[in-house]
Amino acid sequence: MNREKRMNRRSFIKRLVAGIGGLMLFTGLDAFFIERHLLRRRDIEVPLADMPDVFEGFRIAHFSDVHIGHGFTASDLESLVERINEAKPDMIAFTGDLVDDGMEELAATTEALARLHAPYGKYAVLGNHDVRGKAQPEQIIEAYQKAGFMPLVNQHVTIRHEDAEASFTLAGLDDNWRHPDWETTFEKRHGDGLVIALIHEPDLADHAKEYGVSLQLSGHSHGGQVRLPFVGGLLYPPYGCKYPDGLQKVEDSSMLVHTSRGIGTTILPIRFLCPPEWYILTLRKK
């Protein structure tokens, strides 16, 4: 009887180990071969109290963290470009990390991004991977310009409605690992109304709220890149921990920050329970 129990126990342990090994194998295969290619669109309504009425329903396509050169190529951008154009957004905003650890595909990436269209323009900022390592930020800024994007590096522009005397401010900060200049970015802006800021690192929203920003668009966190049920993201980068995912209210303010999970990957070319996402943000009068 004892021998039979020992055999049953050994059989159970063997099956348990085999099951865990199989689950780990499946998870690894899914994370590398499947999920990181499952590009998903998400539609989010953003309530803003200080938005001019005529911008009700204004749609911004927001994407971030492409990380060309880290398991993601310029040709992989084609699907994203096609889907954004099909959505017909009013404006397109890219919030940094165009490249990861190399510049080899910058020209081909520029050609792909040039095929994006929006009547109120295309805007971009630099991310930390765009200004460190082998990356050449000045070349990336030039690539933005060639692709028809307006790079916002410590500056702002006024977005005027085509059919009315109304506008809002769109600002872009240089990356936190290079030369962010808050005063220059937000000084002498038009009026005291709606300010939307493109800032790569989401946790800088705690500082942006001091400059009258109503909505900040960010990336950087990748949503954790690998997430577990009931746990969430396993690892967030510096300045990407407090507001790591989705639309959140900034502490002690009425300001909102929207953090993209990004398109590409870094460190490891995997995603688990955190597929790549791009967004249509629809502005609503609160």
Structure write-up:
This protein is of the alpha/beta class. It has six helices and 14 strands. The strands form three sheets. Strands 1-14-2-3-4-5 form a six-stranded mixed β-sheet. Strands 6-7-8-9-13-12 form a six-stranded mixed β-sheet. Strands 10-11 form a two-stranded antiparallel ribbon.
Describe the secondary structure blueprint for this structure.
Elements: H1 2-34, E1 40-48, E2 59-63, H2 77-87, E3 91-94, H3 106-113, E4 122-124, H4 137-146, E5 149-151, E6 155-160, E7 167-172, H5 182-186, E8 195-198, H6 205-208, E9 215-218, E10 227-228, E11 232-233, E12 246-249, E13 256-259, E14 277-285
Q: Could you write a compact summary of the structure shown?
A:
Helices cover 25% and strands 23% of the residues. It is α/β, with parallel strands linked by helices.
Q: Work out the helix count.
A: 6
Q: How much helical structure, as a percent, in the residues?
A: 10-25%
Distance between the termini: 72 Å
Enumerate the strands of the largest sheet in spatial order, edge to edge or round the barrel.
Answer: 1-14-2-3-4-5
**General form:** globular
